[in-house]
Amino acid sequence: MLCLAKPAGMHVFGEKGSLSAWLLERKPELSGLGPSDQPAIAHRLDLQTSGVMLVAKTADSYLRLRQSFSTGEMRKDYLALVCGHLDKSTEVDAALGGRYRRSQRVWVDDGSKKLRGLQAAHTLVEPLTWGHLAGQPVSLLRARMHSGARHQIRAHLAYLGFPLVGDVRYGANLGLGDLQDRFFLHAWSVVGPHPAMAGEERSWTCPLPEALRLVLMRAEISEFDLAEGP
Length: 230
Prior knowledge:
This protein is α+β, with helices and mostly antiparallel strands. It has helices spanning 19-26, 59-71, 152-160, 210-218, and strands spanning 2-6, 50-55, 75-83, 90-93, 96-98, 107-108, 116-119, 122-133, 136-145, 185-193, 201-205. It has one domain (2-218): Pseudouridine synthase.
């Protein structure tokens, strides 16, 4: 098993400049794992989301890993900085869909819009600590999900009224300063069965990148112990 740290601004798949292309340059023996257009890596992250990604090293392990992600056996924890002061844990169990074929965003299926391609989505949100950024309140959250619908955390947080800092598409009115064209969402950890160890549960983590740590410092968020994680 390989564990990679994906930076924000990098596509997971693609011929040039993607994480999978970078991986195959270094480990060409993995090129036969998975579909030809999505080689080696068993799951996805949005373009502007950083964090942990898992790669199997054999065909059998790859299939087991893909199945674990698709069935929800893998628990994925994200760190999210949101606009506003969220003071209690909450769950959103609401399907997501787009309004047209190539929709650039998704909406919660609350009956107010006709949506296409609905996907079940369940997110648990837990506040960790609070601060202020550019004079506005912000909350650092742990977002946990078992499903993997597109833009799931972004859409569910916006539905709750707490969009990610920097996520203009989903209604944020607060940006990340010099970090243009990105939002504060980081895939911190994945916990689940190791595909090559008879299902033995393991955890894989990826620390916050320095740029996001500096954002937390500006927000005067210091009591959260980044060394231990959520």
